[in-house]
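User: For a teaching handout, I'd like to show students what a predicted protein-ligand complex looks like in C-alpha cell form. I'll give you the sequence and the SMILES for S-adenosylmethionine. Please answer with just the structure.
Assistant: Understood, here is the input followed by the structure.
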Amino acid sequence: MLRELFALWRDRGSRLARSLGQDREAVSIDARHRRCRAAWEPHLAATKRLVLDAAALASGRGTAVVLGSGACLDVPVAELAGQFAEVVLVDAHHPWQARKLAKEIPNVRLVAVDVTGLAGIVRDVAKGRAALPSPVPLPDPLPGLVPDFTASVNLASQLPIPFYSRLGRRLSDEARQAFYTGIIAAHGDWLAGLPGRVCLCCDTAWERVDGENVLERRDALEGVALPPPDRTWTWVIAPRPEESPAYDRQNRVVGYLDFVAAWRGRKASEKSAAMA
Ligand SMILES: C[S@@+](CC[C@H](N)C(=O)[O-])C[C@H]1O[C@@H](n2cnc3c(N)ncnc32)[C@H](O)[C@@H]1O
C-alpha cells in the first residue's frame, strides 16, 4: 500500500488523467502485475501476438496507433516501431514505463487524450449544467491523423468505468445504462470508420470461478454484442488468494485481426434481422 502511494506521488497524472482516475489505475495495474506476473503472462503474450499478426496485414507502413497503451505491458512497442515509420501511443495517462519507451525509441510518440471525448461533458452533467448526450456522439480523439494500423488494446470495457461514480444516482438507471452502452458502441463505430487495418482486443466478461464452476459472470461491455472474434482466450487476472482465497477472478478476452470487416458484418446482420 505504501509502495503504491509512493508510486502515485512520483507519477501523478495530468488534470485529465486525475479526473478519470487513470493515474491511480496505472499504479494498481502495475502492482497487481507484479503480484500476478506468471498468471498474466499468457494473456499479455496473446495480446502482443494478436497485435503483431494484425499489424502484418496492414498495407501501409506509415503510422501505427495503439489506443489504451498504458504501461505497454501488452503492447509490442519495439516491434511495431521496427515495422512502421511512426508509432503513436494513445492513453489518458502515460505512466513512466511508456514515457521511458518514447524517450528510448525515436519513432514512438505519446498522445494524452480521452478517447471518448466525454470527460468534460460528464463533469458538466454531474454539476447539473448539461444533459447527457443521446445518442452518444462519435469521438474524434485524433483529428488529422491517418493511421495505417490501429490497435485498441484492452480498453473498450474500461471506457465507461470512470463515469460510474461521477453520474451516481443523479439520472435514471435507464439513462445511465444507455449512456454506458453508447460509449462502447461509439468506440466500435469510430474504430470501424478509421482508415487502414484495425485490430481490437478487449474483455467481454468478468468472472469469479472456482475450478470449472462459474460463481459469477458479468458482461464487461454494457450489453454491446460483438461479432464473432478471430481469437478468444482467458486472462486470469486475480488468481487466488489475490482477491479472495475462495475464488479466482478471470476475464474472457476476444481479438480481431480485421475489426472493420467484423463490425460491418455485425451491422449488416442486425439490419437484415430487423427487416425479417
Ligand atoms: C486495462 S488498461 C490497458 C492495459 C495497457 N495496455 C497496459 O499494457 O498496461 C486500460 C488503459 O486504458 C486507458 N484508458 C481508460 N479510459 C480511457 C479514456 N477514456 N481515454 C484514454 N485512455 C483511457 C487507461 O489509462 C489504461 O491505460
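For the handout, you might add this sentence: Residues 2-275 form a domain with the Rossmann fold fold (CATH 3.40.50).
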